[in-house]
Amino acid sequence: MDIKALVSQMTLEEKAGLCSGDDFWHTKAVERLGIPRTMVSDGPHGLRKQDDQADHLGINDSIKAVCFPAACATAASFDPEMIRAMGEAIGDSCQHEKVSVVLGPAVNIKRSPLCGRNFEYYSEDPYLAGRMATAMIQGVQSRNVGTSIKHFALNSQEHRRMSSSSEADERTIREIYFPAFEMAVKEAKPWTVMCSYNRINGVYASEDPWLLTEVLRKEWGFEGYVVSDWGAVSDRVAGVAAGLDLEMPASGGVNDRKIVEAVKAGQLDEKLVDQTCERILNIVYRYLESAKPETPWDKEGQHRQAAEIAAECMVLLKNEGDLLPLDKEDEIAFIGEFAAKPRFQGGGSSHINSFKTTGALEAAEGLKIVYARGYSVERDEATDADIAEAVSAARKAKTAVVFAGLPDSYESEGYDRSHMRMPDCQNKLIEAVAEANPNTVVVLHNGAPVEMPWIGKVKAVLEAYLGGQAVGEAVVRVLFGDANPCGHLPETFPLKLEDNPSFLYYGGEGNATEYREGVFVGYRYYDKKKMDVLFPFGYGLSYTTFEYSGLKLSADRIRDTETLTVTVTVKNTGKRAGKAVVQLYVGDSESTPIRPVRELKGFSKVALAPGESREVSFDLDKRSFAYWNQAIHDWHVETGVFTIEAGSSSRELPLRETVEVESTVELPRHYTLDSIFMDVMADPKAAPIMREYMKKTMEVFGKEEQEGSTDAAKEAITEEMNMAMMNYMPLRGAFSFGGSTPEEAEELLKKLNK
Questions:
Q1: According to the model, what pLDDT value does residue 728 have?
Q2: CA-CA 20 to 30 A from 384: which of 70, 266, 331, 568?
Q3: What is the spatial distance between Cα 243 and Cα 695, in angstroms, rounded to a whole number?
Q4: Is 472 found in the same domain as 379?
Q5: What is the pLDDT of residues 111-151, one digit of tens each?
Q6: Which residue out of 42, 125, 229, 527 is catalytically annotated?
Q7: Which residue in 188, 167, 170 sits closest to 178, CA to CA?
Q8: Looking at 477, 498, 529, which one is the last position of a domain?
Q9: Which of 45-59, 377-391, 503-517, 683-697 comes out lowest in average pLDDT?
Q10: Which UniProt keywords apply (predicted)?
Q11: Element (H, E) at 722
C-alpha cells in the first residue's frame, strides 16, 4: 500500500477527520477512497472489547474474555519470557476479535503506594518495568496486533489526573520516568504510544513537542502513531504541531474543523497533517494486511495459562517454621470472602468481563476445607457473628488461611487511595483468627503495598496481588506445594505510608505536583536512608533455599565505551525444585552528583533442581554506570570505582566486587571569579595552573597568623580552618585578602578557560 499516494488523494477535511476517532473505539474510515476503520480496545492484561452495539461512551458491557494477572502481579514474576507468552495469547484474542491495537502495557512508575492505578503498573524501578513492557509488547505484536504503551509520561497519580502538572527536573525525568518507555520503544517498537492526561512542567503531554517529537521520535526512533488518552486533548492544533496523531475518542467534528481552519489561516502547515495521516494509516494497513480473524481463541487453554502465570507471580513474604506448604491430609480453614470470590483485577478501563472465575474455595474442592466468610466486602464489615464463626473454624483446623486484601472501592482508576491500610474489619479478623490458631496464614489480594499491623502474629504471608481470573487455582497450588513460590516484590513495602519518599508532596497543591524526591523513588530512597522497611524491593521466599557464589567480572577496569560481563553462580541447596531470581545492582562508590546506593541493572530467573547450580551472565554497558547530566543533557559516566552486587533482593546481596570505570567524555568547564578554589583544584588540567596562585594566597594567611598573634588567636584560627577557608573561597577572594591583584586574577581566568 502506497500510503503517501493515498494521503495525497484526500481532501483537507478528510485528512483532518482522520485525526480523531469515529466513536469510542474506532478510527475513521474514508469510504470514498476505500479506507476502512479499525478497532482499538483496552488491555493490558486481557481483552476488554465492547460488542458491535457498543455505546458512544464506552461503558456498556464488554465481551467475555480471559483476565490474566494484572501488571502488579506479572512484574513480581521477574520472568520476561513468561510475560511474552502472555502477550502472544492476548494477541491471538485480538486477532480473533478483529482488534488492531490493544491499549497497553502501562509502565508508569509506582511513585507512591497511594496511586489508584498502581495495580496495572509494573514497578517502582524503571529497569524492571522496561524489561516487562518490552516482553509484553513483543508477545502481542508477534501476532501482528499493535500495542499502545502508556501513559507517556509522568502519570503517577489519579488525583486531578486530567489537569495536574507533574513538576520534575530533567535528571529525574530521564533516570526514573523515561527509561521504561525508552527501552520498550527502542527494543520492542510498539505500533503506538499513548500520551498521558497530565501536564509536564506546565505543558500538556498531548501538545508537548519536546516529549512527542524531540524525545520520542528523534531520540528514540519511534515510527508509529501517538494517540491521546481518552479525552486528553486540550489544544488540538497545538497537538498536531507537537506530534499527537490520533485524538480519541471522537470529537464530534469540533477539533477536526479547528485543524482545517488553522491550515487555511496559515497557522498550521498542511504537511504536518499529511504526516499525521500517514502515521495513522501505516498502522491501520499494517494490521489489515495481516488480519487473521480465523485465529482460534482457546479461552479454556488461556484460563489454564493464566493459572500457571499467577502461580509464578506469587510472593512468599513470610513462612515461619516452614508452615507452608500445607499437607493435603490436614483439616484447613479457609476464612474470608476473597476465598470464595477473589479480587483478581482492578477497576476502570482495564476491567475484563471474565468468562469464568476460579476462587480458592472452588479450587480446593475434595480437600479437607472448612469455610467461614469472616467479613463482607460489599458492606466492608466483619460482624461479631462473622468473627465468631471464623474463630470457631480456626480452632478446629490444623491451619487457618485468611484471604484478605483491598476491596474494589479502595483502589481504582480515577482516584487515589487516601491511606495504605487494609479495611479495619479485615485486620480485626486476622488478629482474632491468629489468636485462636497459632498456625495462621494470610493470603493477600491487592494491587499495591499495605500496612500489616498483624505481621508478628501470623506465621505465613502469601502476596497474590491481583492474579487474574484463575488466581484461586494458583493460590491452592502454592499453598499445598504443587507449585513452589518464586515471585519477588517489584516494589518496596514500607512499614508505614509516612516513610514513602513522596509522602509530603504526593497529590500536590492545586494543579501542580512537585516530584521533590527526585531520583530517590522506592528502594533508591530507603537504601540511601538506611531505613527499615516491611519488605524490601526484590524480596521473595521459596520452599527451597539458594546459595549465591562466584561473582566474577570480565575486567577490573574498563572505559565507558566498553562492556563489562558479570557472571554469578546460583545453587539450589534445598530439597525441592525451585526458581531463583538473581538480581544485579550497580552503585557509584563516590560520585559528584547525589546518586542512589545501588540500582537494578540486571536480573535472571533460573529453574534449578535440588543440588543443581548454574552460572548466570550479565552484560553492563555505559548506561549501567551513567547518570543524566543536566549540563550536557546526556548520559554521563564519572570516572571512578563502581560496586557490582548480586543476590536475591536489594537488601540481600551477599556478593560484591568493584570495577573502575574511566570516562571518555570530558565535561565542559568554564571558570569565573566566583568559582571556588576547591572546585578548580578538582580539575586535573586546572590544578597545576592554580597551585602558584594558591601558594601566594596561603602565604598571606600564614604571614598574618605569625605577626602579633596571641595564643588565643592561634587557637581560634587553626590550620584546618585556614585550609577550609581556602577551599571554599571564590577566586576573587584572593585579591580581597591581598594575595593577588585583580589583574592577576583575570589573567588566571584566561589560562583556566583556554
A1: 84
A2: 331
A3: 58
A4: yes
A5: 999 999 999 999 999 999 999 999 999 999 999 999 999 99
A6: 229
A7: 170
A8: 529
A9: 45-59
A10: Hydrolase
A11: helix 719-728
Residues 484 and 518 in one domain: yes
Predicted local confidence at residue 481, as pLDDT: 97
Residues 644 and 727 occupy one common structural domain = no
Cell of 284: 491501520
335 plus 421 within the same structural domain: yes
- Total of domains in the chain: 3
Q: How confident is the model at residue 710 (pLDDT cuts 50, 70, 90)?
A: low
Spatial distance between the Cα atoms of 585 and 643, rounded to a whole number of angstroms: 8
Quickly count: other Cβ atoms within 10 Å of residue 12's Cβ. 14
- Neighbouring CB atoms inside 10 A of 70's CB total 28
Cβ–Cβ under 8 Å, residues 338 and 403: yes
Q: Do residue 383 and residue 497 come from a single domain?
A: yes
pTM score, whole prediction: 0.94
The pLDDT, as a whole number, for residue 735 is 64
Contact 416, 116 (CB under 8 A): yes
**Is 298 contained in some domain?**
no
622 within a domain of the structure (yes/no): yes
| CATH assignment of the domain containing 632 | 2.60.40.10
Judged on CB neighbours under 10 Å (0-12, 13-18, 19+), 213 is: middle
H/E stretch holding 736:
helix 732-736
Would you say how long the chain is, in residues? 754
Give the helix/strand (H/E) hosting 339: helix 337-340
Kindly state whether residue 387 falls inside one of the protein's structural domains. yes
In the block, residue with C-alpha cell 517489584? 490
Q: Most distant CA pair in the chain: distance in Å?
A: 100
What is the full DSSP assignment across 68-113?
A: PPPHHHHGGGT-HHHHHHHHHHHHHHHHHTT-SEEE--B------T
Whole-angstrom Cα distance, residue 558 to residue 664?
A: 10
Q: Is residue 60 part of a domain?
A: no
- Is residue 405 left, alpha or beta, with left meaning phi > 0 and alpha meaning psi from -120 to 50? left
Residues 6+ apart with CB under 8 A from 462: 314, 315, 316, 317, 324, 441, 442, 443, 444, 475, 478, 479, 485
Single residue among 662, 686, 705 that ends a domain in this structure: 662
523 and 608, same structural domain? no
Q: Domain holding 399: CATH number?
A: 3.40.50.1700
Cβ neighbour number for residue 258 with a 10 Å cutoff: 18
Q: Is 221 exposed, middle or buried (0-12, 13-18, 19+ CB in 10 A)?
A: exposed
Helix/strand/coil (H/E/C) assignment for every residue in 273-313: HHHHHHHHHHHHHHHHCCCCCCCCCCHHHHHHHHHHHHHHH
Are residues 641 and 572 both part of a single domain? yes
| Whether residue 383 is found in the same domain as residue 503 | yes
3-state secondary structure of 424: helix
Residues 6+ apart with CB under 8 A from 94: 41, 47, 100, 102, 140, 143, 145
State the average pLDDT over residues 177-197: 98
What is the domain extent for residue 631? 546-662
Nearest to 421 by CA among 315, 494, 525: 494
